[in-house]
Write a structure and sequence with these properties.
The radius of gyration is 25 Å and the shape is elongated. Strand 1 and strand 2 (122-126) form a beta hairpin. Strands 1-2 form a two-stranded antiparallel ribbon. Helix 1 (2-24) packs across helix 2 and helix 2 (29-40) packs across helix 3. The protein starts with a helix and ends in an 8-residue tail after the last helix. The protein has helices at 2-24, 29-40, 46-59, 62-78, 82-91, 128-136, 141-154, and strands at 112-115, 122-126. Helix content is 61%, strand content 6%. The protein has 7 helices and 2 strands; from the N terminus they run H-H-H-H-H-E-E-H-H. By secondary structure, the protein is mainly alpha-helical. It folds into 2 domains: 2-60, no CATH class; 83-154, His-Me finger endonuclease fold (3-Layer(aba) Sandwich), CATH 3.40.1800.10.
Length: 162
């Protein structure tokens, strides 16, 4: 009798762990159970497994991963939610805080969260170019001013200045 209880307890613990994995990966309990049932029986029921796998694979699209990754990156790195990010962006009129472009560039086509690397305090949202420029000049206002002075000195008389 004791062995059967232990076996039942093991099954409950195993199921609880699987359901925790479902939440971890963003699936409902039913979707996760369905996928695992089909995965276990993929040899016996290949068509059922294929259908379940197609549904699962569709969720794994780049956009899905990007949105989930972006959400966790914002929370992990900066302690903000996508809602706070969107509010900051609308407060900046959906544009870069420096150059005012409204078209984010870079690999992910989103505005970067500019923050102080010492205090981790968020300063604003920047396009990829402005964010990289700030980083390459070590977030140093003196270096940024010196670079601006350098450009002013060498661009005297040119009409294509900003």
């Amino acid at each position: 009798m004791q062995e059967k209880l232990n076996e039942k307890e093991k099954k409950v613990v195993h199921k609880r762990k699987r359901l925790n994995d479902a939440a971890k990966y963003g699936y409902s309990d039913e979707e996760w159970e369905s996928f695992h049932k089909c995965k276990r029986s993929q040899i016996r029921h290949p068509e059922a497994y294929k259908e379940s796998y197609k549904k699962w694979a569709n969720k794994q699209s780049t956009e899905y991963h990007h949105a989930r990754g972006r959400k966790s990156q914002l929370k992990l790195n900066y302690g903000i939610t996508p809602e706070i990010y969107n509010e900051m962006l609308s407060n900046q009129e959906n544009s870069c805080a420096i150059c005012k472009t409204n078209t984010p560039t870079g690999r992910w086509k989103v505005f970067a969260v500019d923050h102080c690397h010492l205090t981790n305090k968020i300063r604003g949202l920047l396009c990829n170019e402005c964010n990289r420029g700030m980083g390459l000049l070590k977030d140093n206002a003196g270096l940024l001013r010196a670079a601006a002075d350098y450009l002013d000195f060498h661009n005297k008389g040119r009409n294509d200045q900003l």
